[in-house]
Each structure stands twice: as structure tokens, then as C-alpha cells.
Amino acid sequence: MFTGSSTPTRRSFVMSAAAVVAATAVPRRAFALAASAATEAIAVDGPFQRSTVIEIARDLAKSDYVPPQSELPDPIKNLTYDQFRDIRSFNPASIGAKEGLPFQLQPFHRGFYYKEEIPIAIVTDDQAHHLAYSPDYFSFGKLVPRPMPKEDIGFAGIRLLGRINRQDHFDEVAVFLGASYFRSLGRGQLYGLSARGLALKTGEPEGEEFPLFRAFWVELPAKDSETIVVHALLDSKSVAGAYRFTIRPGLPTTMDVEASLFPRVDLKKVGLAPGTTMFFFDANGREREDDWRPEVHDSNGLLMVNGRGERLWRPLANPKNLQISAFVDAGPRGFGLIQRVRDPNAYQDFESHYERRPSLWVEPVGDWGKGAVTLVEIPSDSEINDNIVAYWSPQEPIAAGTEYAFAYRLAWGNDPPAPAGAGVVQATRRGRAILKGETPVRRFVIDWGFPDAGGTPVAIDPKAEVTASTGTISEIVVEPNPLNGGWRLTFKLDPAGAELIELRAVLKMEDGRPMETWVYRWTA
Questions:
Q1: DSSP structure class, residue 398
Q2: What span, in angstroms and rounded, lies between the C-alpha atoms of 48 and 53?
Q3: Interatomic CA distance for residues 247 and 257, integer angstroms
Q4: CA 105 to CA 88: how far, in whole Å?
Q5: Structural class in CATH, domain 424-523
Q6: Does 14 have pLDDT greater than 70?
Q7: What is the Cβ-side half-sphere exposure of residue 89, based on CA atoms within 13 angstroms?
């Protein structure tokens, strides 16, 4: 049974090191006096209501961005990775434990990559109460230098614990740590992919901008509550924002997210509801990988349900060069990074257990208008890198000086439910078919299955439609798949010298049952 980790993993450190925005350090002589003026007015004692963080973000956006205080006192200002991991939450000091609440809160200690001061407030009876730093919230191992600070240096982030797996034990259900990154998981699962509050300029030549959740307000729940509410203040050079998360653990664990953005500049390259994951390799092309395991990934596909109700499945890739794909749509019904392969035999990894990593499904609330689901695939030579990002890109820029509100639901768990009787893509494989000049003809093998059928063969004779943006498609064959009770589509692609080809395939069932459309980008 999964028990929440008390410290971040090395992989989360690597991800966050690339993500956390560099802050301007306050001179050491000023450290003991106060944090920056912007930090002083955040997450303090006082009345709190639903609009409080929105009002703070609105006011913050009227002035230039001021990074949060990031200077740390000796001896913790230069903690190593191992030293930081030796600082652990002290479980008896968890907020909510003594009161017997259904959720508990533990703050993260500052240090290592997580140096920015992130104030936290606890909300009870419409009143916010600033949570002052104390070493009593933590236990410190032998590697941690002493003495620990006594002044209020704030925290780095928060973790939430709940009875997600057993009624007699509290496990992690959500973590907010590093820039605007956060992660969760479903019952019985292990941490994998992450979400972000906002993506700015992802994959752009000038470099990505990483907004920061710079303050949190956590509403303590009633003893019989099944949800916990977290408010977060987002800030960066380009935008300030207010986020409200209503978190309900289970399978899936759901988060209802309400967000309001206040841009300081026109947001032209913005991504809403971004998710980020790791895809190293699978059976769909492992020519470059020298690894004993059959597959290594936290997610293996991007699933989309567009405004017309069509389900699209795009297998993920670890490309040789950066690739950005945009799936133009209007009024999207959902999209997400999915871990569809749940058989441990597919990975043969007794330590990482990729079969237990959560999928992340984004369901917009209301009409998000015109735009595109955007997929960014970054070359990676290691499984420690989160190299895949997916988000919604509005068609029109979000203008400076305006307020942009949107809402969505996140589901951390398995596949989102498919329509009754629907066929879903269960595997994609490719390999060389024959040599033809310098460019080999490629063979593609795609398997569709019917989860509702429970492995019972579907006695329908489907017809395949396969198209390519260039090159030549040949030898299209559809045959029953006795391994999953579904159907297998095989075809050959002659690139004819092309460097990039967009492919699309779908099975047309005689009884009209819905099938996922397979979309794919082949590169030489």
C-alpha cells in the first residue's frame, strides 16, 4: 500500500530546479528585519472570504513584479540534496492531527532549490491565521546543520494528507511545491505526473516563464467533510492570479479549480490547465534506447474529447528534436495525459511501478471558446526528466489590465470513462517493414479494445480509414485480436522522402458504436 513520501524525490528536485524562477536575493543585513514589502501583506491574520485572494491578485497586478524573499540564514542557506532530504515533517505536529480532522497539513521546509519564502495561512470561521515558522514542525536528521532558525522564515510549500487508502492511516493526497507545480494521485496509486497553475511561453526561443504560487490559504475542514479547500496566489513578471482548489480524495481524486488571472502584459503564449509528465520509450519506437525494460513512462498518450464529441488518442513520443503540436478546437470537452498501460508485465520494474502512476484528466467548466490543445514533446535521455507538457491555448491573447476567469475539474486516477460500448486505442507499435532506398517503409500496428466487453470478441466487421498528410499508405489490414477481444489495424507507410507526416486512422463499426480516432506524427 502506498504511503506518502515525507520528502521530495530526486526526480521532483530535477524538475523543480528547471522550473523555479530565480529571485533577487535580499541583502543579509536586511534578512532579520523583514521580508519584501510584497510578502509582508500576504497570508496575514485577518478576515478571509472567497474573494480575498482575488482582491490581493488584482491589487498585485497593478504594480511591477517583486520576487518573494529568498535569502536564507546560516547554516541552512546552502543545503545539499541529501541534507534537504534529511528534513522531514514531524507527524505529531501536523496541523489538524490533534483536532481529529479528516485532513492534515504539513508545510515544507525552505532550502536547496526551494528557497523562496511562501507564507501560509490557516482559515477557520472566516478568519485567516498566519502560520509562523517553527522547527517544531519538522524532524532533522544527522546530515542537517545546526542550529535551526528561530525567527519566522516562512515555508516552501504544503502537503495535504488524508485517509485515501485506509481509514486508519493518513497518506499524501496532494503536494504544492516549486513554482506553480502541484501533484496528486488516486487511491492505490503512486505519484507520477504533475500539474501547474499556468504555462507561459512553453517551448519558445526566448525561454519559458514560470509563475510561482507565492502564498497559500488552507481552509480547515469540518470533522465530517470529504473535501478540503486550498487557495493559492499566483505571481510572475507577466501575470498575477488567484486559484481555489476543492480537493476530494478517491479514485479518482478530483480537484475543482477556479482561477482568475490579472495580466500585467498581453499573454500571447499562455497555457491553461497544464500538465507535465515523463515519456521515455515504449513499444512505439525504441530504436535509440538501450534498456532492459520493455517500457518506461508516466503517461503514454494524450487523450482529447473535442467540442464535437470526437475522442482523439495521440501516442506520446520522445523525439529527436523539440516538437509542438496544436489540435485546434472550439469548446473542448476534455483533454489529459493518460497512463493507459496498467499491466506490470509491460514495465517489469519492481521499484518504479509505472503501472500505478495516475492519469490526469482536465474537464473544462463552461465554454472555453476557440483555441487548441497544445502538446509539447521535448527530447530526453533519461527517465528523471519531465519532457512532455499539454495544455489549452486560447485563440486570442489575454489582454493586459483585464480579468480572465475560468474553471475546470482535474481527475487524478485511471482513464476517464468512455461512452458505453466504445472502442479505445490500447497499443501502438511501429517498425521497419522493407528497405526502399535510404528511407525504409514503416509498418504500423494499432490495437483497439472494448473495455465494456470484458474481453469478449466484438462480432462486427469494421472498416478502416487511414490518411497521411504526405507519403503513401498501403496494405491496410483489419483483423480480430484474440488477445483483447478487439481489432488490430496494420498498414504500411512509405514516407517518400518526407521528414514529417501527420497520420490519422479510425475504425468504422457497422453498428455505429463510437471509436477513438488515432492521430500520430511520424518524423524521419
A1: B
A2: 9
A3: 9
A4: 13
A5: mainly beta
A6: no
A7: 25
CB-based contact 117:70 (threshold 8 Å): yes
Taking only the tens place, the pLDDT of each residue in 171-205 is 999 999 999 999 999 999 999 999 999 999 998 88
| Cβ–Cβ < 8 Å for 306, 329 | yes
pLDDT band at 131 (very low <50, low <70, confident <90, very high): very high
**Torsion region of 294: left, alpha or beta (phi above 0 gives left; psi -120 to 50 gives alpha):** alpha
The DSSP result for 458-511, as a single string, is: -----EEEEEESSSEEEEEEEEEETTTTEEEEEEEEE-TT-SEEEEEEEEE-TT
Residues 6+ apart with CB under 8 A from 383: 11, 278, 280, 296, 352
Q: Each residue of 480-499: pLDDT tens digit?
A: 999 988 999 999 999 998 99
Output DSSP code: residue 355. G
Residues 6+ apart with CB under 8 A from 134: none
Distance CA 495, CA 497 (A): 5
Query: For residue 47, with 0-12 CB atoms within 10 Å meaning exposed, 13-18 middle and 19 or more buried, which class applies?
Result: exposed
Please classify residue 492 by burial: count the beta carbons closer than 10 Å to its beta carbon, then call 0-12 exposed, 13-18 middle and 19+ buried.
Answer: middle
Q: Is the pTM of this model over 0.85?
A: yes
Structural domain boundaries in the chain: 424-523
CB 237 within 8 A of CB 65: yes
| Residue 21, pLDDT score | 30
CA–centroid distance for 327 within its chain = 19
